[in-house]
Design goal:
- Helices cover 29% and strands 35% of the residues.
- The chain has 2 domains: 64 residues, Orthogonal Bundle (Arc Repressor Mutant, subunit A), CATH 1.10.10.10; 158 residues, Chorismate lyase, CATH 3.40.1410.10.
- Strands 4-5-6-9-8-7 form a 6-stranded antiparallel sheet. The protein has a two-stranded antiparallel sheet with strand order 1-2.
- It is an alpha+beta fold.
- The chain is elongated and about 70 Å long.
- Helix 1 packs across helix 3 and helix 2 packs across helix 3.
Amino acid sequence: MIDKNSPIPIYFQIQEYVREKIKKQEWERGSVIPSERILTEAFEVSRMTIRQAIQGLVDEGILVRKRGSGTYVNDQKVEQPLQSMMSFTRLMESTGMKAAARVLSFTERKATETEANVLEIETGSRVIHLERIRLGNEIPIAIETSVIPKSLAKGLTKAAAEHSLYQFLQEKAGLQFGEARQSIEAVSADERTAELLDIAPGSPILLIERVASLKNGLPFEYVHSFYAGNRFKFYL
């Protein structure tokens, strides 16, 4: 199974073993892998070596940990066209995943100077500040913070925000979406972000800043999102 006399580190040999199991579909996507105790006994190595091997595969996005449940073979990364302004809910549906949202914060407050400039409203105008964890098949994919002028989000409630925000804005508020511009930056997860995304602190994540506008060019949403780098990717 592994060669302890090989110059190749044992943890790396274990990782190659796991990759091969997944490649041959002996360990199917979405299935739980053997526990650390079982793997320790099977490979006759220390638990620390097993943890090093598993953590490396988690960091690569090959495996994913679920609290209180175990470590699983990760599903394929969620992929989104770079040019697309698709709602998260619709994106999940297009990949066959069940979308969900957990609201962390839903408040009405005054817009900051930066927010007012971006959204082209008066400083101090009322805005809806919404922070959510976006999930696909119950796995946290992103933390999304949206700021929307209250005048454009009439009737929006915390309960409604637990579903598709864009669907509400289109169907209930009658908004017609136009274009958006966004920037993407690679950063490291701080402790809070890591805990919410269920990843290790310092893991690579994508910071996405987006300003979305209506068809008439008026900005209607200012968004900051943190996407788990091992579960999400853009393509062009």
